[in-house]
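2024-03-11 09:14:02 INFO worker-7 job=invfold-0412 stage=load source=structure_tokens
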């Protein structure tokens, strides 16, 4: 199976609705989407590079 490259807008909206139904806060939803997108990993790597 290939690596997922991108989610459609409809898939993102479905994910948001599902997370809301599980009582995720707006901030938690944003964190989740950023994590899935890879932003959190990039930020962590940049932070680690600055510490070296």
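2024-03-11 09:14:09 INFO worker-7 stage=emit residues=52
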């Amino acid at each position: 199976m290939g690596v997922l490259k991108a989610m459609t807008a409809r898939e993102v909206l479905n994910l948001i609705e599902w997370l809301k139904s599980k009582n995720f806060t707006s901030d938690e939803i944003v964190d989740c989407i950023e994590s899935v997108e890879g932003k959190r990993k990039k930020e962590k790597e940049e932070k680690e590079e600055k510490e070296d």
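2024-03-11 09:14:09 INFO worker-7 stage=report msg="The helical segments are 9-21, 26-37, 39-51."
2024-03-11 09:14:10 INFO worker-7 job finished
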